[in-house]
Amino acid sequence: MTNNKEVFNKKPPQKKLQYIKKNAFTIFMVIAVVILLVSPDAKSFVLRQLMATGIFNASIDKKDADTVSLTNTDFTFTDGKGSIQNTSSLRGKVVFINFWASWCPPCRAEFPSIETLYTQFKDNPDIFFLTLNEDDDPAVGMAYLEKENFSVPMYQSSGNVPTEVFSGSLPTTVVLDKNGKVRLHHTGFANYASEKFVKEIEELINEQ
C-alpha cells in the first residue's frame, strides 16, 4: 500500500508544482502546526498576538481582597546572591508575584508586559516585583532574561509555597496589597501593561 509521500515523489516536476499550488493552504497549515508544536518562541509569538487584542488584559478585582488569609501568603525566596527573604518582610509594599520558566511559551508571551510594568514602577519604593523562576537550572532562566534584555530581577522560591499562592501551573501571577492580602490571583498568561492595570496598581500603592 502506497502512502501520499510515495505518490508525491513519483509525480513529474510539473505535477508536483501543481500539487503544491492546489494544496498550498493545507501544506502551510501543517507546517505552521509543526512549528507551533516544537518552537516555544513561535507559540509565544502567537499568544502575544492574542494578547494584543485586549481580551487577555489583567484586572484586579476588589472582591479578591478577603479570599486568602495573611498567613497563607507567606513563603521564603532567594535572590541571585543566595540571600533568603520571606514575603512577610514585604508588608507595607504592594507585591507583584509572577511564577515563570524560560521553557514556558505563555510565560514568554506575557513577560514583555511584565517588563514594561516593572520599568514603570521599578523606582517606586512601595512596590516589590517578585518574579520567581521555576527552571530546573537557574542559569537557564537568567540566560533567557539576558538574551531578551529584560531587566526584571530574578528570584527563586525557597521551601514550600502555599497552594493558595502557587499550585504548580505556569505562569501564575499574584498581587498582594500592603497588608499581604491577595488582590489578584491569575493562572495563565495575561497583559500586565494595560492602562487599566497600571492604574489599578497605582491605586493599591496609594491605599493606606
UniProtKB/TrEMBL annotation:
<keyword id="KW-0676">Redox-active center</keyword>
<feature type="transmembrane region" description="Helical">
    <location>
        <begin position="20"/>
        <end position="39"/>
    </location>
</feature>
<keyword id="KW-0201">Cytochrome c-type biogenesis</keyword>
<dbReference type="InterPro" id="IPR013740">
    <property type="entry name" value="Redoxin"/>
</dbReference>
<dbReference type="InterPro" id="IPR013766">
    <property type="entry name" value="Thioredoxin_domain"/>
</dbReference>
<dbReference type="GO" id="GO:0017004">
    <property type="term" value="P:cytochrome complex assembly"/>
</dbReference>
<feature type="domain" description="Thioredoxin">
    <location>
        <begin position="66"/>
        <end position="206"/>
    </location>
</feature>
<dbReference type="Pfam" id="PF08534">
    <property type="entry name" value="Redoxin"/>
</dbReference>
<dbReference type="GO" id="GO:0016491">
    <property type="term" value="F:oxidoreductase activity"/>
</dbReference>
<dbReference type="InterPro" id="IPR036249">
    <property type="entry name" value="Thioredoxin-like_sf"/>
</dbReference>
<protein>
    <submittedName>
        <fullName>TlpA family protein disulfide reductase</fullName>
    </submittedName>
</protein>
<dbReference type="InterPro" id="IPR017937">
    <property type="entry name" value="Thioredoxin_CS"/>
</dbReference>
<keyword id="KW-0812">Transmembrane</keyword>
<keyword id="KW-0472">Membrane</keyword>
<dbReference type="InterPro" id="IPR050553">
    <property type="entry name" value="Thioredoxin_ResA/DsbE_sf"/>
</dbReference>
<dbReference type="GO" id="GO:0030313">
    <property type="term" value="C:cell envelope"/>
</dbReference>
<keyword id="KW-1133">Transmembrane helix</keyword>
